[in-house]
Amino acid sequence: MPRRLRTIVPLLLLMTLLLALSPAAPLRSQEDVQRVFITNFPQTQQVAGSVAIDGVVRHATVQHLKDQLVAPVGPKETTRLVTAGTLTTDGFTSVVLSLNGQTKGRTLRTGSVGALLIPDEETVTRAFEEEGLFQFPMEIKASSVSGASLYFSSEPQRFMVGFPRYRVLLYNTTDKTANVSLHAYLTN
């Protein structure tokens, strides 16, 4: 047997013996059940009952208000704004709003298409309906909607959520009717 082979064979046998004798930790998949311990702290932080989580814990969700037809109306014409529905934000801390759509023909007058969101709270809606006041509003708009293209979109904007529900009101300052969609990505 050549000298080099006589040196390699004992080394390989030694390494194989060491691997066979070493304690191997069992591999766990993400599907394995894992033991969890709960420690009760002083009286002010007692944990009682069972602790369980059913399903996946969601940290985000998307809501869409699609294909709303919006005739020309300015954002200050509060009695004529198009009501597009309600955005439910309960359980989330922020929202990223995006708006897109299409005009029904080439516009002759450049304008903007947007959405105003106001809290769906009695005192806020009363101020809006009686005096046209926007309290705690969020606004997203596609500026410079022109005849260069039928399609338009806004830049996404992040807002802090302060209320569990918001009324969505749409406006369109161009001279053509627009088909508008609002997309809301709610996160924690």
Task: Explain how this protein is built.
The protein has helices at 3-21, 122-131; strands at residues 60-70, 82-88, 94-103, 111-119, 138-145, 151-153, 157-160, 165-172, 178-187. The chain is elongated. The chain is built from two helices and nine strands; from the N terminus they run H-E-E-E-E-H-E-E-E-E-E. It is α+β, with helices and mostly antiparallel strands and 188 residues long. The chain has a domain at 60-187: icosahedral virus (Jelly Rolls, Sandwich), CATH 2.60.120. Strands 1, 3, 6, 7 and 9 form a five-stranded antiparallel sheet that branches.
- Poorly predicted spans: none
CATH architecture of the domain at 60-187: Sandwich
Radius of gyration: 30 Å
End-to-end Cα distance: 69 Å
Structural class: alpha+beta
Overall residue-averaged pLDDT value = 87
Please report which band the strand proportion falls in: under 5%, 5-15%, 15-25%, 25-35%, 35-45% or over 45%: 35-45%
Compute the number of helices: 2
CATH homologous superfamily of the domain at 60-187?
Answer: icosahedral virus
Biggest pleated sheet:
5 strands, antiparallel
CATH third-tier fold name of the domain at 60-187? Jelly Rolls
CATH class designation of the domain at 60-187: Mainly Beta
What characteristic shape results from the CA principal axes? elongated
Percent helix range: 10-25%
User: Based on DSSP secondary structure assignment, what is the total number of beta strands?
Assistant: 9
What is the string of SSEs from the N terminus onward? Answer: HEEEEHEEEEE
